[in-house]
Design brief:
alpha/beta, 18% strand, globular
């Protein structure tokens, strides 16, 4: 699955799924612009990319930061082919325990961040008449659970955003894919990466391989939705 110097932006790239995806895509020929808020972790990632990863620290919900990320891709590589909206945070509490600050911060990253980065990239993709926008959502974009009101609300919002965006840009030659993962063993969970209870979960590398498959399909093929779970998780 050689990506033949395709230029990819990945948000939330400093750890977990984003980091694993950046490394795998770089190993398969892509030029990756990796962004996240943690500049130190991004720089470490950049050094592991063998010249195929460029780190640009920034807040995914900040328009100036994401404009700079897109401009970096254009300045360094002359084009932009794929945008992977991967940045995400989660708060899992009952409704009356959630603070307004937690609500706003979660929505800012998961929903506003998806909008801001996508909007920053769209003029370039439209001018090219091609491109691929991937949104790493969750299987909870399609179901709810007790204690998940905030997180599921943010993922349902991403789902609605993708649905409308898909109808807008498909006639322009731009693909949109929603990725819906089940449980992943990553820093995202409260127990942390590598906990014994998570040993049967998907790995970040599993998700990276899924992303590689999705974006390396022929030009006439689009995977609109990609649902993936660990075998141990009921579906």
């Amino acid at each position: 699955m050689n990506l033949n110097n395709k230029v990819v932006i990945i948000s939330g790239a400093s750890r977990g799924i984003g980091r694993a995806t950046a490394l795998l895509l770089a190993q398969n020929g892509a030029k990756v612009v990796a962004t996240a808020r943690n500049a130190e972790e991004l720089k470490t990632l950049e050094t592991e990319g063998n010249g195929n990863i460029v780190a640009v620290a920034g807040d995914v919900a900040n328009e100036a930061d994401m404009a700079a990320v897109v401009q970096t891709a254009l300045d360094r590589f002359g084009r932009l082919d794929i945008v992977i909206n991967n940045a995400g945070v989660g708060v899992f509490k009952n409704v009356d325990e959630i603070s307004l600050a937690e609500w706003n911060a979660t929505m800012a990253t998961n929903v506003t961040g998806t909008f801001v980065l996508t909007k920053a990239a769209l003029p370039t993709l439209k001018a090219q008449g091609s491109g691929h926008i991937v949104v790493v959502a969750s299987d909870v974009a399609k179901r709810t659970f007790a204690g998940g009101s905030l997180y599921t609300a943010s993922k349902y919002a991403q789902e609605a955003f993708m649905g409308a965006l898909r109808k807008e840009v498909r006639p322009l030659g731009i693909k949109v894919t929603g990725v819906y993962s089940g449980l992943v063993d990553s820093h995202f969970h409260a127990k942390g990466h590598g906990h014994e209870s998570s040993k049967g979960y998907l790995k970040s590398e599993d998700m990276a391989e899924s992303m590689l498959f999705i974006i390396s399909r022929p030009a006439h093929v689009v995977i609109d939705e990609f649902m993936v779970h660990p075998l141990e998780q009921e579906y």
